[in-house]
Design goal:
The chain has 3 domains: 2-302, TolB, C-terminal domain (Neuraminidase), CATH 2.120.10; 310-395, Immunoglobulin-like (Sandwich); 398-524, OmpA-like domain (60s Ribosomal Protein L30, Chain: A), CATH 3.30.1330. It is built from 3 helices and 38 strands. Strands 1, 26, 29 and 32 form a 4-stranded mixed beta sheet that branches. A hairpin with a 2-residue loop joins β33 (397-400) and β34 (403-406). The protein is elongated and about 100 Å long. The relative contact order is 0.10.
């Protein structure tokens, strides 16, 4: 669901973690996550939590057919929300999206992201796009949020979102694709003045920002956490990175590593312990195994295990003929002795992933009916960058050049004959079964001769063979408008045995064949 916030959109990955990233974390999906999107948790001044969710129902967003996001308020007990959840405020929540709120320490001011809508009026850029803006609201004496206003550096022509405050609340960090940036979306900061006004936005620079996307800034204990798909050691999608804030600049930028990062999108990390080392906190992710589109996860440091090297292998399962992803293929990771280590199903993009150890041999298989099993072996060294993709091919069909053929044993004819041999009937019956299984399938029977005899005679002979084959298939209940015959003579040889070349009887027989070409392969998709 977070993809609405900005348009953003295997490999063997050896993770070389720094000292503090060697720590392992216990990660738990919040029990109160829903089948919808839940993400971007933050804390209020009185210890409650606010997060974005599409659980509230109402008008649906056409992009994913889920309700629009609103901000919800609740209480947190470590890894689950307790008590009744309630909308943060009717004035803050609108008919469109709200997300990623941050509160001042006195609890009287909130900054949040919202679609470009104020007082019920939607505003768009010149292209008709309804961008995002950061809004501010003030808590009134009656305990209700009021005084809603958009920040002065918002513009209808670009998006601004994901507000975050530093510890003394003098600097507001945010995400934007405003002019003057480095990449698709950048992280920016702006000074918050004592009278509540703002300075001029400043780009965080090339150390933090890349030519890709940087998003979801959060400040904890002098550390900037953010998500990016442009920095090094990226596992896929958005990964979470951290940078130490030193004299207004940023040093020691690095990934937080596995398992907080995954092959999916990981973002909005908030630390709950004191100090600069991450001991516990929350983050959001749309990784496999979640309950909804995006989920909120709790993480807690566990005693570090001795790990020499940990790797990450992922790949894609595709249809060998169409190159389209194969969804829900069962992908199995096996050890070098054939023991099954783990199984997953390929996602809607055909992707899969496993965490593995270094310096071991592995075997990966992928199966899904009606395909034949695909398999590959590989050795997991400490060198990353290896892709293990798997191509599935149907049992019933085979690609030969740019043609899709019925996958049967060759049908041969005796020299200078066009009668159907007994061994050919077995294979022709397979063709008949396939045509009955796929009633829309149309096939051309292509008959070929060897190069002996003159060219005109071979054309005639191959045409007789094609007609003989068609008659056999039609006599077994296949409509004549689904099967055609074509004689090619000696035009398409399978070997070197052309006119004047001396070849054995066996070599010549390989050219006396009939192929069954699928004329409308799209009906198999």
């Amino acid at each position: 669901m977070k993809k609405y916030i900005f348009l953003y959109f295997a490999v063997l990955f050896c993770t070389v973690m720094l000292a503090q990233e060697n720590s392992k974390y216990d990660i738990r999906n919040l029990s109160t996550n829903t089948k919808y999107s839940d993400f971007g948790l933050s804390f209020t001044a009185d210890g409650k939590v606010v997060f974005a969710s599409s659980k509230g129902g109402g008008k649906k967003w056409k992009t994913n057919n889920e309700p629009y996001l609103n901000l919800f308020l609740g209480e947190m007990d470590k890894e689950s929300l307790v008590g009744e959840l309630e909308p943060l405020s009717r004035k803050i929540n609108s008919s469109m999206h709200e997300s990623n709120a941050v509160f001042t320490s006195d609890g009287k001011t909130v900054y949040f992201t919202r679609n470009n809508i104020l007082n019920g009026k939607k505003r768009r850029d010149k292209k008709g796009v309804n961008n995002l803006k950061i809004f501010r609201a003030i808590l009134g004496e009656d305990g209700k949020w009021d005084g809603l206003e958009e920040l002065p550096f918002n513009k209808d022509s670009y998006s601004v979102g994901h507000p975050a405050l530093n510890e003394d609340e003098t600097i507001l960090y945010f995400t934007s694709d405003m002019p003057g940036g480095i990449g698709e979306t950048d992280l920016w900061k702006v000074e918050v003045l004592e009278n509540g006004s703002f300075g001029e936005p400043i780009n965080l620079g090339e150390g933090v920002n890349t030519s890709s996307r940087e998003m979801f800034p959060v400040i904890n204990n002098g550390v900037l956490y953010f998500s990016s798909n442009g920095h090094q050691n990226n596992l896929g999608g958005l990964d979470i990175y951290k940078a130490e804030i030193v004299n207004g600049g940023f040093e020691n930028i690095r990934s937080v590593g596995i398992p907080l990062n995954s092959a999916a999108d990981d973002f909005s990390l908030i630390q709950t312990n004191e100090g600069t080392e991450m001991k516990s906190g929350y983050f959001s992710s749309n990784r496999l195994g979640g309950k909804g589109n995006d989920d909120i996860y709790y993480f807690e440091e566990t005693p570090p295990a001795v790990v020499v090297c940990e790797q990450y292998v992922k790949g894609k399962v595709i249809d060998k003929r169409t190159f389209n992803p194969v969804v829900d293929a069962l992908v199995t990771l096996k050890g070098e002795h054939g023991d099954t280590i783990k199984q997953v199903k390929s996602d809607r993009e055909g992707k899969y992933s496993f965490t593995i150890s270094c310096e071991k041999n592995y075997h990966i298989t992928a199966v899904k009916k009606p395909y034949r099993k695909a398999e590959k072996s590989f050795s997991a060294t400490d060198v990353h960058g290896i892709v293990v993709n798997l191509s599935l091919e149907m049992d019933e069909f085979v690609n030969v050049g740019d043609k899709l053929l019925v996958n049967i044993n060759p049908i041969y004819f005796d020299f200078d004959e066009f009668k159907i041999r007994k061994d050919a009937r077995i294979e022709l019956n397979k063709v008949i079964s396939i045509m009955k299984k796929y009633p829309a399938l149309i096939i051309e029977t292509g008959s070929h001769t060897d190069a002996r005899g003159n060219d005109l005679y071979n054309i005639k002979l191959s045409s007789l063979r094609a007609s003989s084959t068609v008659r056999y298939i039609v006599s077994h209940g296949i409509s004549l408008d689904r099967i055609t015959g074509q004689g090619y003579g000696e035009k398409v040889l399978t070997n070197h045995c052309s006119n004047g070349v001396r070849c054995s009887k066996t070599e010549h027989q390989l050219n006396r064949r009939t192929e069954f070409v699928i004329l409308n392969p799209e009906v198999l998709d």
